[in-house]
Amino acid sequence: MEKIPITVAYGDGIGPEIMQATLDILQAGGAQLDIETIEIGEKVYLSGNSAGIAPSAWESLRRTKVFLKAPITTPQGGGFKSLNVTTRKVLGLFANVRPCVAYAPFVSTKHPKMDVVIVRENEEDLYAGIEHQQTQEVVQCLKLISRPGTEKIVRYAFEYARAYGRKKVTCFTKDNIMKQTDGLFHKVFDEVATEYPDIENEHWIVDIGAAKLADTPELFDVIVMPNLYGDILSDVAAQIAGSVGLAGSSNIGEEVAMFEAIHGSAPRRAGQNLANPSGLLLGSIMMMVHIGQNDVAERVHNAWLKTLEDGIHTYDIFDEGVSTQKVGTREFAQAVIERMGQKPEKLTPVSYENASNVSFNVTPKAQEPVNIETVGVDIFLRCTDRDPNKLGNALSPYKVGKMHLTMITNRGVKVWPDGFSETFCTDHWRCRFKSEELEASSYQDILDLQQAITTAGFDIIKTENLCTFNGEAVFSAGQGA
Ligand code: NAD
Asked: Of 174, 208, 240, which residue constitutes the final position of a domain?
């Protein structure tokens, strides 16, 4: 079989030990890999490279397109960029896939039947990193959800379900509150779901969905989520399955993919032959499927399950009543190697016969052109006078074209006209100017309006156009409005 080039980083802390164990096991399983090693992490950061990765390492990653990465240590103190976030964004790794499986009774868990795969959107949402302090009292973070970004992740979840014989894809959003952003995610989920009639689909509001996941995870199969919910709930899911130390994950892009353990570099355990290599090994098994060496993935995964079920455990999952032998990193790897070709008897063996990660088609559908009209503007002001009526009266005379002041909100709550005196107000005001019947305004009208308001002495901190798309108003109203 042809050797597949991959890029490997041994990382920091326990990284080198668990990577060596992982590579030894893969080799014993018959992996055909042509390994290029790169240096990332602490040493690179401390050499003055704030990204923690050298230009030559990027060159290797872009060439091999497959990255097996051990955890790294981010040095204490400011100024160091998260290598994970950088890698994800630069290489367009839009999908984070994290299987969370219980291995009861061999690893203690309250949810012995749990077998959930979290598919997290990896590039958008509140993680776009667009944050500003706007007034002395208020900061903002922009939550960006795109249709193509959502379509890609939702398609990925359904394609994954199909490839891995999963029965159901669940979507979590908070679209009862965030009707535009999470609303789009839910809408795209419903649209894409119709193309996969063989797979059941459902949607839960994230709060009750999260509660159900923590309480009865066996109700779920594949769960797809926007970035923030996925970040939080994938850790919850891994932990309640048994241990975050046992979970691997993949970060998939259209070209490049990265595979890793979900835990960190555990510096206190470094160099003592103590660490559990299982998380990284499971990440590497996902990599073997990704590069089409499914037989190796299956052999290694089953040998690992057999080792677990034989009670050969590292310190982190060692349990007097269940485990038979407490072993170090190297001995654990040796035990897996000795079981190569065996299958578990009590745990369910895995089969990767029909699985394929590489051929997923996640291309978003072309969109029909839409007719966009600007019908008004939200002008955000910084104003330390807390009287909304005074502000409303002062701004009411300003009318340009068909736009006039229709509403003022403070932290999203309508405070003018007819606000409640009980509503707490900050120094951050949204003043909505629009036409009554959603008639179009020009951008020149918006500029003229801002000119007039600025000349009158108001401090504009930002504006947001109010638009209709094919005649439909696509902006939120204020609460209480
Ligand atoms: P950690 O995951 O490294 O360790 C948390 C705890 O889990 C520790 O008590 C450790 O002893 C234990 N543990 C973790 N992995 C283990 C394993 N394989 N076997 C046995 N025990 C294990 O989290 P932390 O201590 O918060 O972070 C340490 C460093 O790792 C930090 O510098 C952090 O920035 C970094 N980190 C890196 C990644 C990554 O590279 N993907 C992810 C998370 C944290």
From this structure: 240
**Is the minimum distance from the CB of 263 to ligand 1 under 6 angstroms?**
yes
Atom of ligand 1 nearest to the CA of 72: 40
- Domain boundary, last residue among 278, 311, 346: 346
Are the C-beta atoms of residues 463 and 379 closer than 8 Å to each other? yes
Does 214 share its domain with 301? no
Task: Clarify whether residues 275 and 194 are in a common domain.
Answer: no
CA of 14 relative to ligand 1 center, distance in Å: 9
Number of domains in the chain: 3
Residues 377 and 459 in one domain: yes
Q: Could you tell me if the CB of 155 is within 6 A of ligand 1?
A: no
What pLDDT does residue 76 have? 82
Tokens linked to 141: 């973070």
Residue 433's nearest CA partner among 412, 419, 418, 447 is: 447
pLDDT in tens, 275-304: 999 999 999 999 999 999 999 999 999 999
Is residue 52 in contact with ligand 1, taking CB distance under 6 Å?
no
> Which of the two residues, 147 and 82, has the higher pLDDT score?
147
Write out the residue range of the structural domain in which residue 438 sits: 372-473
Question: Which residue has a Cα nearest atom 27 of ligand 1?
Answer: 264
- Which among 274, 292, 258, 291 is positioned nearest to 333, based on CA atoms? 274
| Structural domain contains residue 353 | no
Find out whether the beta carbon of 72 lies less than 6 Å from any atom of ligand 1.
yes
pLDDT of residue 481: 45
Q: Which two tokens stand for residue 203?
A: 């949607």
Report if residue 212 sits inside a domain. Answer: yes
Percent of the chain, pLDDT > 90?
Answer: 86
Instruction: Say if residue 78's pLDDT is above 80.
Output: no
Q: Is 117 found in the same domain as 92?
A: no
Under a CB-based contact definition with an 8 Å cutoff, are residues 120 and 230 in contact?
A: yes
Reported as a pLDDT band with limits 50, 70 and 90, residue 359 is: low
Distance between CA atoms of residues 5 and 341, nearest Å = 25
Q: With beta carbons less than 8 A apart as the criterion, state whether 412 and 479 touch.
A: yes
For ligand 1, whether the C-beta of 441 sits within 6 Å is no
Classify residue 148: in a domain, yes or no: yes
User: What's the CATH number where 50 sits?
Assistant: 3.40.718.10
Q: How far is the CA of 244 from the centre of ligand 1 (A)?
A: 9
